## 1
Amino acid sequence: MSHEDFEKYQKLVLEDLSLQERLKTFVERTDFISEVVVSGAERGFDISREDVENELRLSRRNWHKRWI
Amino acid sequence: MTAKIENFTDWVPTRVYWRENRPFVDWCYMGDNRFTEPFFDDTIERRFREPFNLLFRHQTPIEFLAEINAHSEIIAPTGFIFHLSRCGSTLISQMLAAVESNIVKSEPPPVDWVLRSDVKNPEISSEQKIEWLKLIIGAFGRKRNPSEKHLFIKFDSWSTIELRLIERAFPDVPWIFLYRNPVEIIVSQIKQRGAQMIPGVVGQILPGFSQADVLTMQPEEYCGRVLARICEHALKALPHRNGSAVNYEQLPEAFDAVISERFRVDFSPEELGQMKLATQFNAKTPQLNFVADSDTKRKEASEAARVAAEKFVDPLYEKLEKMRLQS
């Protein structure tokens, strides 16, 4: 899945409080990734575990780059 | 902007950045978590350990904060903490953060971003910075917990240079300026330098010097000149009806007499007890006990550190001392 398509899923989550509540309960990374994949599929997004890992890595990298 | 206000309950601005030629705010979901770590970014880093917070972050134009703030219960700032670095400001902020009624934001990057936004973009006016500062600090004061009553902001040490502008934005907010014997600060900074003590990291903090000048300057001299610049700006603002100078040597005992009084807060005996407990630990490394280290630092001072302190900062330190003792 492209980064742009993943952003559409992120936007959908940020507008859906009940979906947020569901995802927040998964604090362990592996379980959280599974839930993102499942919740994405329920809404028509073809998200793989690798896509989620990549987006988590990207987000972490952007946070670390804030001083640059 | 189509974002719904209710989607931002328990979210806090964490960063400001340029996107499409306008400032955008990055948000983090806080839940009922408080800012209790020594620095703002430490708390955000902790939140990012939960994958939800890392993956899902609202991003809004900075102007959206006006809408959010207008629909929120806002706690106005109770007190501002300015400082010379390595002089007990983190101890003070950790003491305040030990009490649930206090919201404490310690060196929050969104505030630093606003204050230095004109460095990269000189077209940004003081009025614009004041407007953004009010929006950011307003958003920090959004009440997320019924027990919250006070809001304290500890600025980065170099933000003291913008003290006058901050005063214009918040003319009625009491503030303190914490300082310490300069040679002790230089010794500490040479051991482990803060961002402002590395030439170029916090922009050009020394006017009149080129990048080549500061890069070839002896580290002790650079530290001394930066401390002098911060002291000069504190001295320009003092004496002031809302401001007080506080020496590291007065801490932590002076907290109740000087700081609570200056911030006009009547802490209960129980709250004072909670804050006292916080003083027992090293503010930046809470797993270690706090140990006063002035004597050690003076003994450790190199000749270069002593010379830099005497030449650039000591005369200003003496002025601060005189002002404090006369007030």
## 2
Amino acid sequence: MDISKDLVAASAAPLVLAILSEGESYGYAIIKRVSELSGGELQWTDGMLYPLLHRLERNGYVVARWGKSEIGRRRKYYRLTDKGLEQLASQRRQWQVVDSTLRGIWRSAINPAPHGI
Amino acid sequence: MENNRTLEKRIKEWRTFIHRRQAVHSVDVEELEDHLRTQVNALNEAGLDEDEAFLVAVKRLGDLDSLSREFAREYSERLWKQLVMLPGAVGSSTVATREALVAIGLAIVACIAIKIPELFGIHMWGPEENPSFYARNLSLFALPFLAGYFAWKRCLDRVGGLWLTLPFVAAALIVNIIPFKREGHTEVLAVLHLPIALWLAVGFAYTGGRWRDHDQRMNFIRFSGEWFIYYTLIALGGGVLVGFTMFIFDAIGFSVEWAVQAWVLPCGIVGAVLISAWLVEAKQSIIENMAPVLSRLFTPLFMILLLVFLTSMIWTGSGINIEREVLIGFDLLLVLVLGLLLYSISARDRQAPPGVFDALQLLLVICALLVDVLALWAILARISEFGFSPNKVAALGENLILLVNLGWSAVLYTRFLTKRDSFVPLERWQTAYIPVYAVWAWIVVAFFPIIFNYQ
């Protein structure tokens, strides 16, 4: 199944914030976690994650530091800030509204779900 | 081992290639490279050979065009130095030519506009001269066309265009309807403040109507600094040209003073406004910005000046002697310090850690604040002794506006230097403050004459 570009873009920020709320991480690991969580359904263009991370940093939701990888290369790690936690909570509420609205209409809609629930 | 070397070579090639994209900084490239290597390793372990792994990893990173566009969106200030987002070089030269033609055309229109009042008997020079008309309207002969240039260049929509004409129409009505007393203070104040008020209206056109966007505002600040430098350079060149013209015609016994006064000067003054703007727009992709360089150069010098001034004042125990000129002088000093601050901020890499120069900047701001508090004290003393006058109230208002800006900047700078906050709030504070100047300038232009009875 192809998830539309707009949807991927809209969900990217809350997803990254949520993953970082599990603990400090870096680009590659975040992308791996996304595909793990979505069972490979959510495919990102890897490079696009970095401008997003930088934007979150500029907004003060995450802080970055340069550390070392397992083999000693320089690697940039990102960590959630308190402001980021608040943002995550607010994003979460917004998504819950969207989710419950969609559920509501899908339950009452005439056209049945594709596989019949 | 052989394989490893080819991989290193490929990564190096990839790095050089991506470096050419000016929007992606070397630090960002390093981050992307780490990603690429980790990905290659993972694919390797999954059974792909080095070549395949590299190709897949690069492919997954996304195509470079859209990637650098994403980076460019996030770091618009980098693009200021090197514009790379023009899709392909084809056609860009015709765009440049068209732009040049529009700018030069508008400059000529401005020259014609400033000569039109002459047809209605309002003379710039001579026995029936009316210099105050020209002084009041000077910015109206140039800035509407500049705003028009940006409205055209940024493809401002119709609603935005209507909003844009509003301040210019209002300004034209205000300065020509208000019955100023001859050579009164409120008229002089209006003459001084109208260009500022209208310049910020040009800012609306410059941002293409997106004036709420902080990055756009910052770009307008950058533009203003560069524009000022270009304008000054053109004025210097024009001065040399005029000097030589007068000199060589004098040598053969012709006096060309009338032509210089009636044509060259007025047309030069309004035309250069558009030409400078066009040059800044055209050259921003090629050269480094000058305003930040100058502010770096003069920040330490001004700081030394203020320190010496403060110490000698404490040493001799003498207060500031407030005359009218001194009052304006201290306002100008604050404007200058604000300018130094603004242009250092505009060129600063947001992510660089605090350095010596930042500490210097903070010290400069604090010195200026101290000097200003002393001046403010003296102004208030004078007001309580002699009462209010338009000049004093204008100076007091400007002083307070700048004081608030610099005071809060000092707080934000301290927070940044002590690593309690990032650099972004400081930048935001400056861009958020711009409307305050506009509101004040409009108040002085439109309401001061009424409040002070057109004195």
## 3
Amino acid sequence: MKGMTRRALIAAAAGALLATTACNVDSGATTASSPAAGGTASAAPKALKVGWSTIYLAPSWMQQTLKMLEDDVARLKGEGKVASYETFNANGDTSQQIAQIQAMITQKYDVILVDAGSSTALNPVMEQAVAAGIVVANFDSLVTSDKVIRVGTDQVEWGRMTAQWLADKLGGKGEIIAMNGPAGVSVSEERWKGAEEVFKKYPDIKIAANVHSEYNLAPAAQAFASAYSANPDITGVFSQGGALSAAALQTLVKQDRKLVPITGENYNGFLKMWAEKRREGFSSIATAQPNYLSVIALQAAVAKAGGANVPMNITVPLPEITDENLDQFVKPDQPDDSYPIQPLPQGEIDKLIAGK
Amino acid sequence: MRGDLDLVWLGALLLVALAVYWRLDPTLPRPATITILSAQFLPLILAAAGQTVVMLTGGIDLSLGAVLSLGMAVFVTNPAGNVVASMALALAVTVLAGAANGALVAYAGLPPIIVTLAASFLWAGVTLIVLPQPGGQVPAELVRAYNMGWYGLALPAIAIGLALAVWKLVKTTRFGLALYAVGGNEHGAFANGIDTRRVKIAAYGFAGLFTGLAGIGLAIQTGSGDPTIGTPYTLNSIAVAVLGGISFFGGVGRMRGTLLGALLFGLLSNLLLFTGISTFYQLILQGVVLVVAVAVKTLAARERVA
């Protein structure tokens, strides 16, 4: 009797596992049975098997990126350039991301896109993929390997561009609070490096406080409030992230103070507040980590797999959101936690991929 | 006897998982694939082995992921100028970090869950001082030999074998017996003349050794160090140990159960990568498989007792 129970349990478990495999057989069949819908595209001789491994998928920025990527995949499928597409979410676990890329190598993917959880830890497995003849394109959070296509923005320029606007706005003198991301995070360090370069040129701009905070509204609001109560006479705020900017502006509005210029990002919560307070003389500049980095990476990889010459480093220009063009970006009907962006014209993408 | 039956159940599940995996990836039995998979599973197996030692004392280690990153960080900054000495130094650091956790548990009489939670912040901070951002160096030849095979040998698999052999030896010593005694009945062990505090400190230190080895393995696999990469290993190691039949209350469970549990956990999450089901369902399925595996095992055990 005992033995039987045990055997029954084992059988049940085996069944459960096999059920999992059954799913695979289905999806395997669909991918295998869609050969290149030959014709229109002369560059791509066969339709490609494409996968994206991302360190996170849940944040709204990632969700928007996924949507944009899937739309472009659908278009490329229509052109017969892409046969199948798969997303792999590592959920913050870099080791899992290594396993995902390994699994894609085993399953003979043609193109692997990567939004990296570590700037170094994925290098060996990505280089292994390249050695196996797979085109690997990395975007957004970049790795240090020079064997893969890297599509990103210049974070130092981000800091430089927004800081320069602030310096000009202040006429080269004043007192500011700097709102930076967490210490030790490379994005934060790079943006501040660019900003610092600019502020060094203006000895009359005094940095009253340099605040580090998570890129989240609540902790940023706290951090800003205490820095502001110690320095209520500031004439501007350098902020390197949208939630940080929203926190600063929110604090000024709540305390009914003068709305000094604050630099920003395309975080919709900030854009909405900016649009509302623009009437009262609030002024800002914002830039963005554009979601279309994913689309550029996909198109570059597909072009390279089709034999085209593609630059290994593609630096995508940072968008500029100003008092004048703000209305094209802000989305009053959408939640605060979204990142509105204007799509990049296909002509611009083609230029970037061609290395012009 | 009961432990053996548990392991039979786990082993059977593992065989099924292996068979399915073999169907999806026909290269499974080849040395190259074994090398890659063992490199991939080594950090989890050794981290879970460390967690097992702590759990056998009736404790839990929430700082394991941070200590793993710390060992990795010390190793890749190459403080001693050569690989072997840096490895030894990294292990010394993780053993000391573990022993420090153990000393707080043993002498301050604080619950392990609180001590190690606090320690996780402490060690994460120390790691950031050692290695503020991803980087560091691991010799390229070592990375290649470890990940691609060395004269056809799967080095990570050998390393796992050696580490577990050490455990087998240690288990038969007085310390090994005392470990189970302290975990099973601390007062009884104390009454029988066992220095329970020393046993605990040694156990946490020993866990630090396994955790440090996991960190070094991860560094060689990835060819670099990353100060935050260890975090997921804390919960994964606990999940694996529980799956392997290690009791939360101490004194019950065997290392081979943890090994089977880690292999099953690793293979299952890899299998899901082959299934092509949507990524959020993969997480759900992974959780469900874990719960079902543990629940069925527990129910089976209860039925036998009844």
## 4
Amino acid sequence: MQRKMRGRGVAASWYGIARTATVDRAGAWAELDDGGTAKVVTGVTEIGEGILTVLAQIAAEELGIRPEDVTIGDNDTARSPEAAHAGATRQTYMIGNSVALACREAKSRLFAEIAAHWEVDAGTLVAFDGALKAHGTNLAMTMAEAVDIAKKRGVVPVGAGHFTAHGTGLNPVDGSGAPWQAYVFGTQVAEVEVDTLTGEVQVLGLWAAHDVGRVINPRGVEGQIEGGVVQGLGQALMEDYRTEQGHTTTHGFAKYILPTALDVPEITSVLVEDPDPLSPLGAKGIGEPALVPTAPAIMNAIHDAIGVRIKSLPATPEKVLAAIAEKEARDAAREAAE
Amino acid sequence: MPDMKLELQVNGRKVTRRADPGQRLLDFLRDELNLTGTKEGCGAGECGTCSVFVDGKLVKSCLMPAAKAQGADIQTVEGLARPGDLDVIQKAFHKTGASQCGYCIPGMVMAATSILREAPEASLDEIKERMGGNICRCTGYSKIIEAVALARDVVTGRASPAALDPETVGDSFIGHNVRRLDAPSKVTGRLKYAGDMVMPDMLHMAVLRSPHAHAEILSIDTSEAEAMDGVACVITADDVPGKDGFGVFVHDQPIMARGKVRHVGEAVAAVAAEDVATARRALKKIKVEYRELPGLYDPEDALQPGAPVIHDYAPDNVVKHIPIRKGDIEAGFAAADLILEDEFTTQQVEHAYLEPEAGLAYVDADDVVTVISPSQNITHHRHMLSEIIARPINKVRFIMSPVGGGFGGKEDMIYQGMLALAAMKTYRPVRLVFTREESIIASAKRHPSRVKYRMGLTKEGRITAIKFDMLSDGGAYGMSSEGVMRKAAILSCGPYEVENLQVDTTAVYTNNTPSGAFRTFGGMQAQFATESMIDIAAERLGLDPFEIRRRNMMRAGSLTHTQQKLDSASIGRVLAAAEAASRWEPGAPRMRGPERGDLGGPGTRAPCTLGARFEASKDGKERVA
């Protein structure tokens, strides 16, 4: 075997969106505000995934204004409606749809007033990027003017929305049930180089194709995939929380090894859209699913490169070298027998 | 306390302060000057979040005593651009979406600044190498590196400054790369995380943690600690007025150890004092008498008859067992041409969010007990705390501060209860910031797993039956184990339609660090086993790994493992997309790496050759570079 060996592996995956085997719910409030801006209130905040930007995009699209015109009031059990937790790949799906529904209600209040003001059918009104028009007419105004008119007519354009995902519990005997109403699928291909002298594995390329339902923010989705892949890579190759008799021996980042910029492969994200038919937005999610196929894709690539299967994560250099030695011993024994 | 007069320049302004000579530069900047853009991620110089310039040199401020900065010229992230403005690097981070949770980002921006100052023409490899001392847990670094390269190109004139402008929108904001709204506050260090927040009259908390994995608590004597100057209160389980117990599924964990400790690092008592140093000194004055108990450290041992019992309510040490049955596995295996059996294990994994746990609690004017923390589940935390402190639910308020990385690890209410109790006892704001070591021993990990797998297939590669048995170490408390086992079971056999299957997932109690929610919630452990098995099957049957997956994949109308009928299944599309994007060369996975023609093309990087590097010199000899 040469010192540096390369190979490729693939792994597929699936995942459910929002809480598991239960009814999931979330709520949101919206108000079209002075200046053609908006307030959106929801009970969760950013954990880094970009949800506030996603919600601002959704609100902007639904209300016909710009994302930067949206102020998001969030994160407070005493001031905002329940959005439940920030996890389970549920933020875009649960909160995003709640915000969309709240915004639709607020907008319908505004449109009813403007339709009456212009004496047109509310169904002819379209708003985008801060401009409001009546389709098939020359009537146009800014959303700032529209809000002003609605208020002068005595109406504050507010809305509330909630979204439900109808999962069912599992039968305690055979586990049957419908745990989620929306599923996503993914496939990743990893290309690795194994240094058979040191046992080090480098992931050089990773192609990640994921169905996210509908892409709200492409860069945001890529960021989730890249982050998930690198966490998966860490688990595949180096991360290992260890205890001895309950005492950790990996109590800091000198002992608990994490991937750095030098470990990262080139990552090619391919975003596939299979819209969810059961929700207003059609978007599903990507936070967790991005991580699922990474480790097995890397292990399968290691096998392709050097013919050994690492079945116990992580594939540390020590484990890779031991597996190579075992394979060589096995091959030698087979040759001797032949 | 000895102190010294410190005179230095910070962000171009002269600063004179009396300071504790033992104080770290990091604390001096954050606590004395309120420059909280400089973050503490590890306190050991390993993560880079606290990077600042000292006399132009990038330094990890957690490793530098403030006293050594006497006369120095310090620049922090707050000093890079005029207030309210962004410099080129910050704009580039904004443009590419380089910040996610944002906690590592000030350090990343400082490291990037150092690159552009010292090596403005740095190659991509050099950028990665120079960023190698800064850890990010969210982004996978890709967009950070892209941002640094973009800033480099703008600075060197290779790209127009217009490259930093936002993309223009077409006819929809959906599907558009709207720049992150929170990026400007993150790239400038302006965003306040819980550990950056201060309130007037605020106390500081420190937590006494168990040195034992399993021990009975015979007595706790807090009197000496309580008598110390500067100590406002000491709390233990005795201070809990309501029904003690929290957990994502089963409420088996007390706010602080009650009667016994079940893992090393479990909270036993907490002190709120005028400053952190006093609080930590007071911990040493708390006397706890323990009687050690036999411990459990392996999930197999936990299931043995006569094993020590960790929780009285679960005499068999089982947190949760989830069974899934479909079809007839005996018939399925009888119909198989090939039966594979194997075993797979995965390790415990630390979330390693860069922001250690932190929180601030107070009782407001309306007697509402308020906790500000990066909790991933303020709704459930409010419910649980209301019962624990025996107050009506509208008198409990949770505010979710910006989360500096969560990944599931901040779903457990492992410290908010202590903050609430201390605030209620003192009627003063109380803040707690974990050290990295504390975070590692006290917070949940990804469940380790052992999967015993049996798969039957026809010679055409159709799966006829699967028997899947997973055992997981849940550690000392239930946390999310129940849900993790459920999700692992539901997803276990992967995106394939399998007519006959028997799946069991079980989590047990041990005296190890608890396992809990972690991105994929059991999904990756289970599917690692399945995807490895499928590859082994492809190898044995001489099938291309994409092809064997296609032969088994779910389709519209398929019944999942839990017998749910799918209206659509995009697995065929994502398989095709990955196959095309990677220019996959078909073939069975029989160590064909050496012969493949699809290696090293677009979408790959060159191998990293860090370490001893050799350069060929003119005379043809290699030398260490």
